Amino acid sequence: MKNFILLSIFLFSTPLFSQDTLISYLDWYKEVCDQDTADFKRKCYKADTIWLCQVYFKSGELNATGAFLNDSLTIKTGEWISYHKSGNLEDKSIYIDGKLEGLSRSWYDNKVLKFEGSFVADSAHGDWHWYLENGKKCAYENYNNGDELGIVFWDKKGRIQDNPQIELEPEYPGGEQEFYRFLSKKLKYPYDAYEEKIEGIVRVSFVVNSDGNIELIKIVESVDPRLDAAAMKAVKKMPNWQPGKQHNIPVRVRYTIPINFKLK
After folding, report:
1. How far is residue 140's CA from residue 135's CA, in Å, rounded to a whole number?
2. What pTM did the predictor assign?
3. What does the pLDDT look like over 57-97, one tens digit per residue?
4. What's the gap between Cα 15 and its chain centre?
5. Which residues are paired to 201 by β-bridges?
């Protein structure tokens, strides 16, 4: 069964303190992180049998509101609303016992509708319509309880596209082989680490933005500060990628790659 998942504003996490107030720190992709590196702060308050939650941008603006049914914050309930940093509405969805139900809508920061469609028990159902930021329609998708029945994509000039795909991964210029060829040319083994016979695999995370540029580069698995720095330096030199797409709309996609420092 095919189904697509709308990226949620909240990630469920372990509370930091207080039996009536739960606080979590989240990165840009709503993953739990240290307070020092957080982009968002989530506060949840116990109200009778549910938890009322609010998420704030690091700079203090409201990002989202909603509620959970359970103490472990895994079952959403009722209407969830998210906002752009400007305060403009970004998304409205309804949950029943943790499952998306009914009409779901999203808007760009310029208040143009991004998509609208309905869910039945967490599965896309019926007609879904997707739009570019300029308001032009770019995708029509039809589902029956998550099963894809039909898709039509339009390009920026309004022409129907051949072989539409719901999701396209970002691509390095020239493909995967060119990507690793680039890294092999740009990666320099630190001399002192080489002399000390330090080796291992450094894992680097980065985001391919919706315009193809690379951002949010960070080490997610360290070996040695010198090897980490060399890996970061190589990744920062990458050219823009072809951005990924979902529903014919460019999106941000995060990658994690292993960079192997091995002595010869």
Report:
1. 14
2. 0.79
3. 999 999 999 999 998 888 999 999 999 999 999 999 999 99
4. 22
5. 260
